[in-house]
User: Which sequence fits this backbone?
């Protein structure tokens, strides 16, 4: 998070811009936006010391709806842009927001390496197991037999869904959690904890797409708080995850890897670097 702590106190509303969200009524992303702004307020983050970076998709509209610095980047590339920002401005708190298609399909490679590099930033993925903005195609996290959309093949894709939490653990993320949009205070607390935790923090928020995944309204009756304390060993967290039915909410893993620090002071001037890369 930002190295500069503010003496001014902020309300969640201080982080909400005047731009009215265009999400469908009932979309889980409204609640996640509120959780993010509440987390910022609870941490007392100055808007000018905070950035929200996103890719493309319904949830990636979030930078426009906040008063912090923001960057609505290109599809699947939000983590690369955010890592560059954090390395150039280590004093800034950087939060990356997006969806399952943007993050795990188009941006899958960046997700792996963001976990591995462990740059100090927080990645919040609003997972609704569908490409919502492009009208209902199956995403990497869609169930194998889901075919309720005209955009899905009859009988479903037959493909085993991507498991983002397990991948994050295996790739080296330093904080891994699952949250639910229908529990905005709990999600805000988890996001605040993720921001405070050093290194790359990953929060998967189950965020219903009420338009293309109507059945996700039932998630509110299916989720429950996880009973176990966060693991400090990724193998223990992975074991727990593999026996989990996908509806336990809470922090799964808190590691102690040191956040990435760039090598500085190469001593080379711009002219020398120019010469090195001259064709
Ligand atoms: Fe939300 Fe789905 Fe509508 Fe997109 S299509 S705004 S994810 S409900
Ligand atoms: Mg999606």
Assistant:
């Amino acid at each position: 998070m930002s190295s500069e702590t503010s003496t001014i106190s902020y309300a969640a509303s201080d982080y909400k811009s005047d731009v009215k969200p265009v999400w469908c009524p009932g979309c889980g992303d409204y609640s996640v936006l509120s959780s993010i702004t509440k987390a910022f307020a609870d941490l007392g983050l100055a808007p000018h010391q905070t950035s929200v970076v996103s890719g493309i998709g319904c949830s990636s509209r979030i930078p426009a709806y906040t008063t912090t610095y923001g960057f609505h980047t290109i599809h699947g590339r939000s983590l690369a842009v955010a890592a560059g920002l954090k390395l150039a401005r280590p004093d800034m708190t950087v939060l990356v927001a997006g969806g399952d298609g943007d993050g795990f399909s188009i941006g899958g490679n960046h997700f792996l390496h963001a976990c591995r590099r462990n740059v100090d930033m927080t990645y919040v993925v609003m997972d609704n197991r569908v490409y919502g903005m492009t009208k209902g195609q199956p995403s990497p996290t869609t169930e194998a037999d889901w075919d309720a959309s005209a955009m899905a093949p009859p009988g479903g894709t037959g493909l085993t869904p991507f498991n983002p939490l397990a991948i994050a653990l295996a790739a080296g993320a330093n904080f891994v959690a699952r949250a639910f949009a229908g529990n905005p205070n709990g999600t805000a607390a988890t996001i605040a904890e993720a921001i405070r935790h050093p290194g790359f923090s990953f929060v998967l928020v189950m965020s219903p797409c009420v338009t293309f995944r109507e059945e996700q309204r039932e998630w509110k009756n299916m989720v429950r708080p996880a009973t176990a304390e966060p693991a400090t060993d990724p193998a223990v967290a992975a074991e727990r995850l593999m026996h989990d039915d996908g509806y336990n909410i809470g922090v799964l893993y808190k590691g102690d890897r040191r956040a990435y620090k760039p090598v500085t002071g190469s001593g080379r001037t711009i002219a020398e670097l120019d010469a090195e890369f001259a064709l």
Q: What stands out?
A: The first helix runs from residue 28 to 43.
